[in-house]
Specification:
There is one protein chain. The longest helix is centred in the middle third of the chain and has 15 residues, at 178-192. It is globular and about 65 Å long. The protein has helices at 25-36, 81-94, 123-127, 154-163, 178-192, 196-205, 219-223, 245-248, 254-265, 270-275, 339-346, 366-369; strands at 42-49, 52-59, 74-76, 115-116, 119-120, 251-253, 280-281, 289-290, 295-299, 302-310, 315-321, 326-332, 374-379, 385-393, 396-401, 407-413, 416-419, 424-430, 436-443, 446-451. The protein starts with 24 loop residues before the first helix and ends with a strand. It has an 8-stranded antiparallel sheet, with helices on both faces. With 454 residues, the protein is of the alpha+beta class. The protein has 12 helices and 20 strands.
Length: 454
């Protein structure tokens, strides 16, 4: 990797730059509205036009203070981290240290890795979400829902892999997997004989001059960290991703992310070119292709690569057109999606969806709420299941799903609830005796029935 990328020009709004890229008016107005109404605590949008760039800040980093975010404000970038892990794989391939087809078991001789009818999981399978591993491991049981990965160790990851049975052959179906990327990062670090953080710094951050990018933030980075928030506006800590860090644990800033995207955009070096090379389709009939983490799409006649991310209190979006002419980064310290905002900033004229007004809640007595407390389980197979645990906390009902932190529920009617931390609703059905029989999770236009565990 070439350190000259660290010297690419950076034009920050408010400087004397003459060619600072202009943010689309609709995007600017939406960002102002999102922060003014409290839907987001702060938002930073970085725009790259050719070799010029600009950073626009909205809202306030600290509640009640006029501390507008800027190019050096630090955010957790969530699953955008996967693109860095994918780039580390590409780098190792170019350096002839691994091959994409190499079984991950060859990099982790101390592990017992699952296979399907003798077919092993390859590094490419992990990097393209074709590994047949689940989204999250089945031994994931966080002690602290507000920091769910903090106690998930390499020993637990090793235990999961030794016991897990693949439901299908690797390389057959796209199925997004956080644990898959955790394993990929672990394997690459093992092959190098260094930690994931050491790899990240030596192969990406230092060569690109990304001084505010790390899985283990320095005191200086923490001093510039925008505190995380749930969708409700409640403050929440940044997640400690532990062994799952290669899937979503990196912190960064707009300034650093500009340097990162520009490394892909301008006559990219071989690792960067390999990382955005289409490898597999997302689905048999889908035009979306998968590179090494990056998703590759086309809209308005323009091809672009993108990825988004979210942790407990942060959301991110990074994208660039594959002709190298335009790139966008959106960072926020609220766990609410910014994908639409990012796409509209990348491709001006892309319509933004209308903002939804906050739903009104009614109060139900605690004795009435207690009847909903239970585990609701959806069995995909003997090896895969999803459990939604509904509990009664100090302020009312809360729900926590497998691998997901707890979020408060708000009643809209008897047996009808909604979340504010995520865009979803939860309804309860009853049997002939009037007892709660199941929960119906409504999200993204789909309904999933979860029978009550007896």
């Amino acid at each position: 990797m070439n350190p000259t990328f660290a010297l690419l020009p950076l034009c920050i709004v408010g400087s004397a730059a003459l060619a600072a890229p202009v943010l689309d008016d609709a995007v600017r107005q939406r960002a102002e509205e999102l922060t003014r109404t409290g839907l987001h605590a702060s938002i930073v949008i970085a725009v790259i036009d050719g070799r010029d760039s600009a950073v626009y800040g909205f809202g306030s980093v600290h509640a009640g203070k006029n501390t507008k975010p800027g190019a050096d404000t630090v955010y957790q970038i969530g699953s955008v981290t996967k693109t860095m892990t994918g780039l580390l794989l590409a780098d190792a391939v170019i350096e002839c240290k691994v091959t994409l087809e190499e079984p991950v078991a060859a990099l982790l001789p101390g592990y017992t890795l699952p296979a399907f009818d003798g077919k092993p999981i390859s590094l490419l399978d992990l990097a393209t979400h074709y590994s047949a591993l689940p989204r999250l491991p089945d031994n994931f049981a966080p002690k602290d829902p507000a920091n769910p990965y903090a106690d998930y160790t390499e020993a637990k990851q090793r235990q999961f892999l030794a016991a897990y049975q693949l439901p299908r052959a690797p390389g057959s179906v796209f199925d997004y997997s956080n644990i898959g990327y955790a394993v990929l990062g672990t394997a690459l670090a093992a092959r190098e004989g260094r930690s994931y953080e050491a790899l990240l710094q030596s192969r990406i951050a230092v060569p690109l001059g990304m001084r505010s990018t790390s899985n283990q933030p320095t005191h200086g980075m923490l001093a510039r960290l925008a505190p995380g928030h749930l969708m409700t506006g409640e403050a929440t800590p940044a997640w400690d991703l532990n062994v799952v860090a290669p899937a979503g644990g990196v912190y960064s800033s707009a300034r650093d992310m500009i340097a990162y995207l520009q490394a892909y955009m301008f006559k990219p070096l071989r690792p960067y070119a390999l990382a955005i090379k289409p490898q597999r389709p997302m689905a048999p009939d889908s035009d979306t292709k998968v590179g090494l983490a990056w998703l590759l799409e086309q809209q308005q006649g323009q091809s672009y690569a993108w990825h988004s991310g979210q942790t407990g209190g942060y959301t991110s979006y990074a994208a660039f057109t594959t002709d190298g002419k335009r790139g966008v980064v959106v960072l926020t310290n609220t766990a609410r999606t910014v994908d639409a905002l990012g796409l509209s900033a990348l491709l001006p004229g892309t319509p933004l969806p209308p903002l939804k007004k906050p739903q009104a809640a009614i109060e139900l007595p605690r004795v009435a709420l207690a009847q909903y407390v239970a585990d609701y389980v959806l069995e995909h197979s003997p090896e895969e299941h999803f459990t939604l645990t509904v509990s009664l906390g100090k302020h009312g009902l809360e729900a926590a799903g497998t691998g997901v932190g707890s979020a408060p529920l708000f009643a809209s009617a008897k047996d009808q609830f909604f979340f504010r931390a995520i865009e979803a609703e939860l309804a309860f059905t009853r049997d002939d005796a009037g007892k709660i029989a199941a929960a119906v999770l409504k999200q993204g236009g789909q309904e999933v029935v979860l029978p009550r565990k007896q």
